[in-house]
């Protein structure tokens, strides 16, 4: 232990108190032991420090900061060096605002395009996610403060996010949902990591010894602090025993008493508390010192410029028929679409930044060299049909050489706390596109959305440019791409499926029960489409440029591939060279190919460069459930290098020496996993892969029953609460504006009442409520009252003792 001296100065109660937050975003301090309090703030694409009333849903305003493009956007740059620059700038702003721990980046694997927080995550591919996230962490921590990669792990949907159980087989867990975190931990050494809300195979992530001890600390060597997600602690004592360092936000005295009682009863050892405290003190003392040393200002203009460059490097040109783009100077353009005036540039929820300034597409067009014939909003942002707006836009379209049509998802379609219900653009936007295109075939669609969309309307536009959620300076970058000042070089970090019905997790995403079955196994994103032979609209890694690149002269062995890339066009550009590994005729089933290396190469017109892609320990490995370790199947592998997952330009066969482990699947019938056709895996086959029966999914009346499940209880009071909340939620949906607060409460388990109320509600009171819901109305009520009085008295006594320590 590093901090034995400080720890021995503390009594058990003081030690336990330090392991949970003081306020929504600060830790407790202890003057006598020289422990300062530190501030943790969101988030992943800019600092959200709340100076006034604090909340974890981004409802109240925060101190102005630079809003960088979200992770889903920057992932399209495939440029870790850029990620590191953004990280450094965010770290600088955080430290300047006295934030010691920045809660990001988010790197959960995009299992389904519908996850409401996909805009906050990088990719469907763990290698790309891990590399980008590691770069952010290095950048943030270069300022001396701590990053906090999140949410560890298997947290790929918002529905029932605090009480859903992600049921996943160990190989899929390791290869798809943990590999990104492994890369971050091993390559960037984050000082903190946030555990996720959900359970994994029946055990809450935050108290999961397999996850936090065996894998995170022992296998990967993580020596930082694990921070709970806000309200994500279930059994605090078990969390502490199994590797969770700091419970947030501020559960009050109850959490302190829970730990004390656990030590006294022998449920956990005092040594567990000391071990966690040692981790916490390292985090607190290091980052506090860094904040103290740091200047209180930063260059907001420079950060705006960086945000603009980042957005520009991340724009993906999806379609460009007849080389409509770039538009020549003086082109007469009609600007259509509400988003041109009111940009959609970030997501909703805890990542929402109070941007220092926000550029709009309309303003940025002014000095672009294009000649605007006018602007028409064209559609109602919330999807209501509006014939007059449409007619005005169509008339304008007819007057121009080309139309710049700004479409996208509105704010509420993708948000923390809420999954999307489909992958569609609003009908009124599609109708507008059709009408505009009839008036002017030179229609360029500019899409702002943090996740993939269905594009049945693709034939109606000549060019399609994806700006994702480009941050506060994204609009200017987009204008630069349209005029050719920037040659787009971004590529998709997520497949765009033809239809939601084609996606692999379709039948097991955000279902009615608590259990989320990850039945599709390894076949997420391109791993599925390419193995099962399902056509897609735009493949993973796809992106066009205003120039062309040729690939030649590849030499490869099991350690690297070297090739030449030449810019054969007439303007400078950047190419993202991707290397996929395939094993034809593999004995152990595996996706058709997997991304294992990539590089972004900037080339002047006519220039050639030699590119070397290095293969690391993850290139050929698979997780063997029989030996419980990483193994390599020996034999011939194919290295496929190309411009996208579907545009392979060069291949090389390499021989790889295997580890000769026994095939864990020998003698087992896994035909769907062999073929990759995993949309309809039968129960028996899924159980074979899982190695156990599918867990029971009945609603239980316990501390983890969600408020949205109270209708399953036996209490009229519970039914009433449920009815009122459901009515409020439905009303907000009808208005087209789901109420995030109600939604959060709806998906919140009863125990979170004790975790999210600054100590006003204790776990004893929650147990009283559970009794009430179980049908013991009188005893339940009496218990709630008794526990409430007890809580007030004990809290006051505790706070008094802590204040004087
Ligand atoms: C989110 C986290 C966030 C935290 C604090 C939670 O609701 O899941 O990502 O960091 O709130 O705002």
From TrEMBL:
This is Glycoside hydrolase family 3 C-terminal domain-containing protein. It comes from Subdoligranulum variabile. Coiled coil: none annotated. Residues 575-645 form the Fibronectin type III-like domain. PANTHER family: BETA-GLUCOSIDASE. Keywords: Hydrolase. It comes from the Bacteria. Belongs to the glycosyl hydrolase 3 family.
């Amino acid at each position: 232990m590093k901090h034995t001296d400080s720890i021995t100065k503390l009594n058990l109660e003081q030690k336990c108190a330090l392991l949970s937050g003081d306020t929504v975003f600060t830790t407790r301090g202890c003057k006598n032991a020289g422990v300062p309090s530190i501030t943790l703030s969101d988030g992943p694409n800019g600092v959200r420090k709340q100076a006034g009333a604090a909340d974890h849903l981004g409802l109240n305003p925060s101190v102005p900061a630079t809003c960088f493009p979200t992770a889903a956007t920057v992932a399209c740059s495939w440029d870790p060096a850029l990620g590191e620059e953004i990280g450094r700038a965010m770290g600088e702003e955080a430290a300047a605002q006295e934030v010691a721990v920045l809660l990001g980046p988010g790197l959960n694997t995009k299992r389904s395009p519908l996850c409401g927080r996909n805009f906050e995550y990088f990719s469907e591919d763990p290698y790309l996610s891990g590399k980008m996230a590691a770069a952010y962490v290095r950048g943030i921590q270069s300022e001396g403060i701590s990053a906090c990669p999140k949410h560890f792990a298997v947290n790929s949907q918002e529905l029932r996010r605090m009480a859903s159980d992600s049921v996943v087989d160990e190989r899929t867990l390791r290869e798809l949902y943990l590999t990104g975190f492994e890369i971050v931990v091993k390559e960037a050494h984050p000082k903190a990591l946030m555990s996720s809300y959900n359970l994994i195979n029946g055990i809450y992530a935050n108290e999961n010894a397999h996850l936090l001890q065996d894998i995170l600390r022992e296998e990967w060597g993580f020596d930082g602090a694990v921070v709970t997600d806000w309200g994500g602690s279930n059994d605090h004592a078990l969390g502490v025993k199994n590797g969770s360092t700091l419970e947030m936000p501020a559960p009050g005295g109850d959490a302190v008493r829970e730990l004390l009682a656990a030590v006294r009863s022998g449920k956990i050892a005092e040594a567990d508390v000391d071990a966690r405290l040692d981790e916490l003190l390292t985090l607190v003392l290091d980052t506090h010192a860094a904040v103290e040393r740091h200047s209180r200002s930063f260059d907001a203009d420079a950060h705006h410029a960086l945000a603009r460059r980042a957005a520009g490097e991340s724009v993906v040109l999806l379609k460009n028929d007849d080389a409509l783009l770039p538009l020549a100077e003086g082109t007469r353009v009609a600007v259509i679409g509400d988003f041109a005036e009111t940009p959609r540039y970030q997501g909703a929820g805890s990542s929402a930044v109070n941007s220092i300034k926000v550029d709009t597409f309309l303003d940025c067009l002014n000095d672009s060299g294009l000649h605007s014939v006018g602007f028409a909003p064209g559609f109602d942002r919330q999807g209501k049909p509006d014939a007059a707006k449409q007619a005005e836009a169509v008339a304008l379209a007819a007057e121009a050489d080309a139309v710049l049509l700004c479409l996208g998802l509105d704010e509420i379609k993708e948000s923390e706390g809420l999954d999307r219900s489909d992958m569609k653009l609003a009908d009124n936007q599609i109708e507008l596109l059709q009408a505009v295109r009839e008036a002017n075939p030179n229609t360029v669609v500019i899409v702002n959305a943090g996740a993939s969309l269905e594009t049945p309307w693709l034939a109606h536009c000549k060019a399609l440019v994806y700006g994702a959620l480009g941050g506060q300076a994204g609009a200017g970058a987009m204008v630069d791409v349209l005029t050719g000042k920037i040659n787009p070089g971004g590529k998709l970090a997520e497949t765009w499926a033809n239809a939601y019905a084609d996606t692999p997790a379709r039948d097991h995403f955000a279902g009615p029960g608590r259990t989320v079955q990850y039945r599709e196994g390894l076949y997420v994103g391109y791993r599925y489409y390419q193995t099962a032979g399902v056509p897609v609209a735009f493949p993973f890694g796809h992106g066009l440029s205003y120039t062309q690149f040729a690939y030649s002269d590849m030499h490869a062995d099991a350690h690297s591939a070297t090739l030449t890339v030449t810019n054969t066009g007439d303007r400078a550009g950047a190419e993202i060279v991707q290397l996929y590994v395939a094993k034809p005729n593999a004995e152990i089933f595996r996706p058709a190919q997997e991304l294992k290396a990539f590089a972004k190469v900037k080339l002047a017109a006519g220039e050639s460069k030699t590119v070397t892609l290095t293969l690391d320990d993850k290139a050929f490995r698979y997780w063997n459930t029989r030996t419980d370790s990483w193994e390599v199947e020996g034999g011939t592998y194919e290295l496929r290098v190309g411009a996208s997952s579907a545009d392979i330009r060069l291949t090389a066969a390499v021989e790889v020496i295997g580890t000769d482990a026994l095939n864990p699947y020998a003698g087992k019938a896994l035909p769907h996993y062999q073929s990759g056709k995993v949309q309809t895996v039968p129960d028996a086959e899924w159980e074979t892969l899982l190695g156990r029966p599918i867990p029971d999914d009945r609603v239980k009346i316990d501390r983890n029953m969600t408020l949205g499940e109270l209708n399953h209880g036996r209490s009229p009071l519970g039914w009433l609460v449920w009815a009122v909340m459901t009515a409020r939620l439905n009303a907000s949906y009808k208005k087209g504006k789901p109420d995030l607060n109600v939604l959060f409460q709806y998906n919140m388990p009863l125990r979170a009442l004790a975790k999210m109320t600054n100590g006003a509600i204790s776990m004893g009171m929650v147990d009283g409520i559970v009794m009430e819901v179980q049908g013991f109305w009188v005893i339940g009520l009496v218990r709630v009252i008794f526990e409430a009085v007890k809580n007030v008295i004990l809290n006051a006594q505790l706070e008094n003792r802590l204040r004087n320590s």
